[in-house]
């Protein structure tokens, strides 16, 4: 398989880098439709919260920072949306470990690159229709048109609709459903024998009931609201929340709340992880327009390439903030705002949270790569990136509004108002990597990157305070050097050993609305790796393995402290081993497996646990700091195993073939937070997927039946914690339940 993990075309088995590469065929045979499926086939990878990758324990993102796993589309740094499907793909490349030299900033954990298919010289297309449980309806199509010998066009897209995986017992409807589509245009222009231009335009649109948080969990505690040691299906203890304080201060004296009232009395919380009882269903709106453009020209000794990227996106995600259909009633009808632009007069307590965001990103890269196999080969280039965006997190609750009104404060303070009006990032870099080919068997690689970065932000945070102005934070202006050195040696025709030392850098940023920790420092890493890439038994067995050790300084940890989601800095180390196997003992059998081990360890890190600020069950204040030295990193299971097997045979004398496939992944338990408390534990889980595929002799017709998550387990992927003022309850996210269906595809 040909990859571009070093910014030039190379066979994957010859590249001295730990990479998991998936061709279009590999994606299809394992039915990898998106990021949630992709994580199962990557060693030491977790899709935290079902929307962001963590590789080798690194990838933790805060509201003011970036994820440690870089994302790219067709080589452009514009970001792949994990919610989107991997349709009409040429390949997917996942690099494990820091990639600071060629991929640059914010790749301290790794990099994921998706490459869409380019138009070809043949007229053709395909259409796939899929029906499944939960009223799943999905159609995928592609048409390839060679307009002339030099101009080729390709259109591809899909549309998906299905009912939700979760029941809302209060509304009688299902939530966490999907209503989304994506369309793509790809144009390829050959400008002579040595010049080629490729333009990709894409649109993703979703208007679903996707839930950000699937389920509330809490074991009521009279001091902290929810216990830091146990999870259950209670509501927070009302006496430990800000709501009782507000009621006593304003609402009870005004006759709006009866003395002794408890808003959580009788509040339903079904014990089924896939059932909720909320006043209204979640809404999820996301739209992205994106484009990539590549222009390359081959000179005799070198190839000159320009890659540009553009994306513009907007989102609004709304949910019932208290995750409950409360039986509580005000003493008389009250007029208040229950959400943006919605005012009600009712005795019910209705509350909403809304997460919004808009962003625009452009990237440019020009690089020069040598051709041939001389003593010295190289890649060098210039890079520029710019993004501008805004975001907000807003909470409407009648207790907050009535309290602020009683103090005579303006309307912009009547709700929790955490807003970044403008955030900009500008980054530029030079990079270069050279390879010394001492012989056919021995090669050395040296690379370096110099990066500059500027960040600005204008934000405010209003939480039961007077009106606050938007505050311009001091500009972050930083520069850094990163590098990479590797040595690889071919011990036989089909086996190569390599060793690498590399450094990485992730820029610092702002913690919006947090006066105690207004900024966080850049993250750096020094990484060491030993690897083996080999093929045995006449090329029927592929074995790739690696050992790694990473030393992180000022690693950025996402935390919830004093009502804010912030990034904190801590030192940490990660180490482990990975093994990937692919074996085709006969023409009928194909076996694959990967195994990974991971050990993570925090250095000295003094902080306060939002779930238990007093560090006891008898005292809530003052806050007691704890040192987390030696704790495990979040989203870092110590062991992960993936097994796959498929068998293909002829279907009597019909000319059709039948392929049976089995996939199983098991992931060890891990912690949702760096505090490693009992309520942070995400238990080990396994997922079994089955397929049965029939194809005619020409491969133009395929019929596929599938089952995913055969056992219908409710596997938890993340646990987040709410603020101590409202009881520190947990929000849980899950993998998909058991799904099954039939897919029919026709190629022409």
Can you put this structure into words, describing what you see?
The protein is mainly beta and 748 residues long. It has four helices and 47 strands. The strands form eleven sheets. It has a 22-stranded antiparallel barrel. α3 (242-251) crosses α4 (398-406). The longest helix is centred in the first third of the chain and has 10 residues, at 242-251. The model has no long low-confidence stretch (mean pLDDT 93).
SSE arrangement:
Blueprint (H helix, E strand, L loop, with lengths): L1 E2 L6 E2 L7 E5 H6 L5 H4 L6 E4 L3 E4 L13 E5 L15 E8 L13 E7 L7 E9 L3 E11 L4 E12 L3 E3 L4 E3 L2 E13 L4 E14 L6 E3 L2 E2 L3 E2 L15 H10 L23 E2 L6 E16 L3 E19 L8 E11 L2 E7 L3 E19 L5 E21 L1 H9 L9 E22 L4 E21 L8 E2 L3 E17 L2 E12 L2 E2 L8 E2 L2 E14 L4 E21 L2 E20 L5 E14 L3 E2 L18 E2 L11 E12 L6 E11 L2 E2 L9 E2 L2 E11 L5 E8 L7 E6 L8 E5 L4 E9 L1
Parallel strand pairs: 6-8, 12-19
Antiparallel strand pairs: 1-2, 3-7, 4-5, 7-8, 9-10, 9-47, 10-11, 11-14, 12-13, 14-15, 15-20, 16-46, 17-18, 20-21, 21-24, 22-23, 24-25, 25-26, 26-27, 27-28, 27-29, 29-30, 30-33, 31-32, 33-34, 34-35, 35-36, 36-39, 37-38, 39-40, 40-43, 41-42, 43-44, 44-47, 45-46
Write a short abstract of this structure.
This protein is mostly beta strands and 748 residues long. α3 packs across α4 (398-406).
């Amino acid at each position: 398989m040909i990859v571009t993990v070093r910014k030039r075309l190379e066979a994957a088995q010859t590249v001295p880098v730990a990479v998991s590469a998936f061709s279009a065929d590999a994606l299809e045979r394992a039915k990898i439709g998106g990021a949630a499926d992709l994580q199962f086939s990557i060693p030491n990878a977790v899709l935290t919260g079902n929307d962001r990758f963590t590789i080798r324990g690194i990838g933790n993102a805060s509201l003011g920072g970036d994820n440690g796993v870089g994302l790219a589309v067709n080589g452009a740094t514009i970001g792949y949306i994990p919610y989107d499907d991997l349709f009409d793909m040429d390949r997917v490349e996942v690099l494990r470990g820091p990639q600071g030299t060629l991929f640059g900033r914010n790749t301290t954990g790794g990099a994921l690159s998706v490459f869409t298919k380019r138009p070809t010289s043949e007229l053709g297309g395909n259409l796939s229709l899929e029906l499944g449980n939960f009223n799943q309806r999905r159609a995928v199509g592609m048409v390839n048109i060679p307009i002339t010998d030099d101009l080729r066009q390709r259109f591809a897209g899909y549309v998906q609709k299905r009912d939700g995986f979760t029941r809302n017992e209060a509304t009688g409807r299902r939530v966490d459903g999907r209503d989304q589509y994506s369309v793509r245009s790809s144009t390829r222009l050959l400008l002579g024998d040595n010049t080629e231009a490729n333009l990709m335009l894409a649109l993703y649109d979703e208007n679903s009931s996707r839930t950000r948080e699937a389920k509330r969990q809490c074991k009521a505690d009279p001091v902290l609201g929810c216990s830091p040691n146990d999870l259950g299906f209670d509501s927070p203890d009302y006496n430990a929340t800000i709501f009782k304080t507000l009621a006593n201060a304003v609402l009870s004296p005004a006759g709006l709340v009866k003395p002794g009232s408890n808003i959580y009395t009788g509040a339903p919380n079904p014990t089924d992880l896939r059932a909720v009882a909320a006043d209204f269903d979640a809404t999820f709106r996301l739209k992205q327009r994106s484009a990539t453009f590549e222009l390359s020209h081959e000179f005799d000794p070198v190839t000159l390439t320009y890659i540009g990227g553009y994306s513009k996106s907007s989102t609004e995600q709304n949910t019932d903030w208290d995750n409950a259909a409360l039986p509580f009633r005000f003493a008389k009808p009250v007029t208040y705002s229950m959400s943006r632009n919605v005012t009600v007069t009712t005795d019910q307590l209705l509350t909403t949270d809304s997460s919004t965001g808009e962003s625009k990103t452009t990237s440019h890269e020009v690089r020069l790569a040598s051709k041939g196999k001389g003593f010295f080969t190289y890649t060098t280039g210039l890079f520029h990136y710019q993004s501008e965006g805004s975001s907000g997190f807003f909470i409407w609750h009648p207790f907050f509004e009535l309290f602020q009104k009683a103090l005579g404060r303006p309307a912009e303070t009547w709700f929790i108002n955490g807003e970044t009006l403008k955030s900009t990032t500008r980054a530029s870099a030079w990079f270069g990597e050279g390879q010394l080919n001492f012989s056919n068997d021995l090669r050395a690689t040296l690379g370096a990157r110099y990066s500059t970065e500027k960040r600005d932000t204008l934000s405010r945070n209003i939480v039961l305070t007077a009106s606050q102005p938007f505050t311009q934070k001091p500009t972050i202006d930083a520069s850094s050097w990163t590098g990479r050195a590797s040595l690889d040696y071919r011990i036989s025709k089909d086996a190569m050993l390599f060793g690498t030392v590399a450094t990485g850098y992730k820029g610092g940023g702002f913690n919006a609305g947090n006066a105690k920790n207004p900024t966080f420092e850049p993250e750096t890493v020094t990484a060491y790796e030993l690897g083996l890439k080999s093929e045995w038994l006449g090329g029927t067995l592929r074995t790739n393995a690696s050992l790694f050790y990473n030393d992180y300084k000022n690693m950025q940890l996402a935390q919830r402290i004093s009502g804010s989601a912030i990034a904190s800095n801590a030192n940490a180390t990660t180490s482990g081993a990975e093994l990937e196997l692919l074996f085709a003992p006969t023409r009928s059998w194909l076996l694959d497996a990967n195994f990974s081990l991971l050990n993570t360890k925090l250095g000295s890190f003094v902080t306060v646990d939002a779930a238990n600020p007093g560090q006891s069950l008898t005292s809530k204040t003052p806050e007691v700091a704890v040192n987390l030295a030696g704790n495990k990193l979040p989203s870092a299971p110590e062991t992960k195993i993936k097994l796959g097997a498929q068998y293909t045979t002829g279907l009597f004398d019909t000319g059709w073939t039948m392929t049976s496939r089995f996939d199983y992944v098991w992931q060890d338990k891990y912690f949702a937070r760096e505090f490693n408390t009992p309520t942070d534990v995400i238990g080990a889980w396994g997922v079994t997927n089955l397929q049965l595929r029939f194809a005619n002799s020409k491969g133009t017709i395929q019929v596929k039946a599938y089952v995913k998550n055969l056992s219908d387990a409710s596997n938890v992927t993340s646990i987040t914690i709410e603020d101590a003022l409202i009881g520190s309850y947990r929000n849980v996210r899950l993998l998909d339940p058991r799904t099954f269906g039939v897919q029919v595809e026709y190629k022409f």
